[in-house]
Amino acid sequence: MSMARIEDLGDRLVVWNLNAARRAALTPEYYAALHEALVTAAYAPRIVAVILASEGGFFCAGGDLGVLATRAAQTEEQRRGNIERLHDLVRTITGCPKPVIAAVEGGAAGAGLSLALACDFTVAAEGARFTAAYVKAGLVPDAGLTHFLAGLLPRAMAARMLLLGEPVAAERLHALGALSELAPEGQSFDAAMALADRLGQGASVTQGTIKGLMNSAAAGDLFAQLDAERDAMARAQGLPEAAEGISAFLEKRAPDFAKLRSET
Asked: InterPro entries under this entry (predicted)?
């Protein structure tokens, strides 16, 4: 039985984690499917978003501890290689020019939380709980989790999550601005689909450029960011999306960016 599936809905891809029996713990099949979907989206103009979702009512429990328990028998170099495969997924999510949306039901834990926070939009169902309890297993966070939590949360809350392993409710994270949207229980996927609808009405190429600028802003300094924004704006002004958007504004009509994608 496959542990992952890519659903092609025309203008978006949905990557399903099918490992419901293990609370959607990460598997090699899921790694491969997510990577394939992100690369496909990056090069297909018709695709405006990628959605991450899971069967079984829980977004992702992260690494399977049964598998991790066998890692002590490996060399440290082999263990680094295993971790790098996970980290490559995080790099691909953030590097994909199309927005990536996480639809979180039930909760996310460990590397599952990392993947959810690596996305451009994290939609969570009410009552979902987010956990980074690596410390309880004698392990440390990976997949960028310390980076994401340090950027999204006050240090005091991040410390309780990481050093004590305390879970945090979706409602509290949303109130702090760490989640994009709260949805009624059982409706996070519908909310993610609605977000993809809105993205599909926008300028997809421009969205990708803005995503790249947001990523560089988080890692760079002001002067470097000013140069990046200058270059991106100069390119944008010569693209068909800008011509359509400016014309629509001046003509007091809604822009038709989807038409541009159909013409490519």
From this structure: ClpP/crotonase-like_dom_sf, Enoyl-CoA_hyd/isom_CS, Enoyl-CoA_hydra/iso, Enoyl-CoA_hydra_C
